[in-house]
Amino acid sequence: MIEAHNLSKSFRDSKRGLVNAVNGVSFNCQPGQIFGLLGANGAGKTTTLRMLATLLQPTRGSAKLANYDVVKASEKVRQNIGYLSNSTALYGRLSAREMIEYFGRLNSIPEKKLQGRIDELIQRLEITDFQHGHCDKLSTGQKQRVSIARSIVHAPPVMIFDEPTSGLDIMTSQTIMTFIEQCRSDGLTVLFSTHIMSEVERLCDEIAIIHHGRVVSTGTVDSLRESTGEHALENAFLNIVKGANNA
Amino acid sequence: MPSMTKTVFLKEIRETLRDKRVILGVIIFPLLITPLLLAAVTFFATKKVIDQETSILPIHIIAEGQLPSLTDKITNDESFKVTFQKDRETSIKALQARTIRAALLIHSDAQTKLDTNASAQIEIIYDQANETSEAAKKRLRKALRNFDSAIVETRLSQLDLKPEFLKPTKIQETNIASKESMGGFILSTFLPYIIVMGAAFGGMTTAFDLCAGEKERGTMETLLVSPASRYQIVQGKLLAIFVISLGAAVCFLGGFLLPIQSGLSLFKEAIGDSISISYQTVGTMLIIVVPLALLTSSGLLAISAFARNQKEAQTYIFPFIIAILFPAMLSSILGAENPLYTAFIPVLNIALTMKQILSNTFEATYFALSLGSSIAYALIAMRAVTALFQRESILFRA
């Protein structure tokens, strides 16, 4: 479960002065549900997810993941999440197997169980053929499969995806989306950020539209369409953002 | 070592040892290239000395006056090719054009002065900015000293005096230094510099790869989202850089000592024919290098943490290079025995302590102060880099 309450992040920039990257974001995400954060580039999606993943500390507000506070129990939070983004890369000089093994150890999986878990993931994600190849020699699709294995090696109850398909070809994107759907089927709490409408339509049970660091609308895909009177989600999104700009 | 720190450390070492740049810079270069460079320097230095000793040097004798007893001696010396000149200016031009290496000017009243037991005025014209001209001057001075000695002997015998009349003291020098300690002394002039440089810069590639490189490639975010705390991550990385830096220092030391200890004649010529360094000396040197490697590893990791990418890290390295290079070079100039306050100057204290260890001038107080202050500096640097690693404005600089 993810609970974000009035989550805010500001920082000082030498050129722009005080920047409020995220301003009072609140939402809840339940197990077995995919919650989407939809927003344009620079809207504050990544900063929000980084706060939830304990990479950044909130300036104000609070959040709990798997019942652990992101500030007070950050290590516990990290033990209970899997984080996959377009910027979480692999170590080029480690093999695919070593990469999964490394993160298994960082997640304190006992050595006796670790090799079995790695074998299971390698088989499930079809990594067998290239498990001993160095990550810098793998194709983009192969790398994504290793990244997925890395993020779930410790079987976390919460998964966070930050624009995971950005820059990927359609085949690799399909692999990622299928994996996200699998996470929901397995009862995991899934938080997913994107700016691609088709992915939202396919995956998300509930959405928060984030604009200039604020949540400007929440609901299901259908409820957002209805509230704006638009058939296409893209137009509904643009209407909501336009309304937020005029407010 | 906490298990998470150990996990990070072992992974960093594994990945680093697969980096060809590190293998080349930390192991192959110090162990193979350094002895070859030493051999090349020795070869060319020896060749230069031989050339200077055996070459025939063209000189002018500007005979304003006649002094056949001297000019005949120099003309008959096979190490000179003598041409007689009348004009001083012509000789200076020839010297500037490097067609001659020196000129000997005999003043017009030289013979008269000699005959009257006075001093004949003789001038050596040379170019101090030219090594061969300097060598020609030295050779001429030697010939003139021999000429002087012969005349003094004649003058003394005319006065019925013995040569001892001019030498009220008879000086005998006794050098108590063993061949081994002389070898150690010669090593102490350059080996500390090499080891300091090895310890300081051996871990540079690793340090830049482990932090700035991770930010650049996007693996830093992957790592930070793991349950390992930032403290554990930075300690693991720091330990890996430290091991590589220390390894580089050991390889540089080995690169010099192994060929010498193995008895290769070419290397023995470079630093003496009976050089030997005990295991105790090597061990003591390694002890004193440990805090230096920790200090420099922390410095390199701080630069790497601050930089957005490896290219930016390379631009920030300049002040670090100066901070290491200057004291390291200073240690080559300074003697082994120095005031105690120098034991508190970072980097210099380590280099000077190594100098003491090598040249048999070991002072326990200096060693203890140097080791203690260096450990203190290393701990401060470690705390600073750990604190830097906690700052998200540093780790997530856009």
Distance between the termini of chain B: 33 Å
Query: Assembly state here?
Result: heterodimer
Helix/strand order of chain B, N-terminal first: HHEHEHEHEHHHHHHHHHHHH
What gross morphology of chain A would you assign?
globular
> Biggest sheet of chain A: strands side by side, in what order?
6-7-8-3-9-10
> How would you sum up the major sheet of chain A?
6 strands, mixed
Overall geometry of chain B? elongated
Greatest contact between two chains: A-B, 29 and 24 residues
Question: How much helical structure, as a percent, in the residues of chain B?
Answer: 55-70%
What distance separates the N and C termini of chain A?
32 Å
Mean pLDDT over all positions of chain B: 87
- The total strand number of chain A stands at 10
Structural class of chain B: mainly alpha
Estimated helix fraction of chain A: 25-40%
Please list the strands of the largest sheet of chain B in the order they lie side by side.
Answer: 2-1-3-4
Question: Care to describe what's here?
Answer:
The complex is a heterodimer of chains A (247) and B (398). Chain A is α/β, with parallel strands linked by helices. Chain A contains nine helices and ten strands. In chain A, the strands form two sheets. Chain A has a six-stranded mixed beta sheet, with helices on both faces. Chain B contains 17 helices and four strands. Chain B is 69% helix and 6% strand. Chain B has a four-stranded mixed beta sheet with strand order 2-1-3-4, sandwiched between helices. The chains are: A alpha/beta (247), B mainly alpha (398). Chains A and B meet through helix 2, strand 6 and helix 3 of A and helix 1 and helix 10 of B.
